[in-house]
Description:
By secondary structure, the protein is an alpha+beta fold. The protein has one domain (5-67). The protein has one helix at residues 33-46, and strands at residues 5-10, 16-20, 28-30, 50-55, 61-67. A five-stranded mixed sheet has the order 3-2-1-4-5, covered by helices on one side. Strand 4 (50-55) and strand 5 (61-67) form a beta hairpin. The radius of gyration is 12 Å and the shape is globular.
Amino acid sequence: MVKSGRTVSLRDDGRWANQKDGGQRATSLHGTQKQATDAARQNLKNQGGGELKIKNEKGKIRQKDTIFPAKDPYPPKG
């Protein structure tokens, strides 16, 4: 089961936010989506894993990743 989650999204001021799911404020702000995503991945690794959601410029989720050691609730079949 996934322990916690983080979301990377674009703010109105043009900066990318790394925010804990359910949090009021961003944990960190970045100039690029990649920087925010890298920071969110590191936060999740430090917290024992979780679900990372990355949103596009329009606010739609474009990617979801389960960060180890969390267990993916919907692993690929194969």
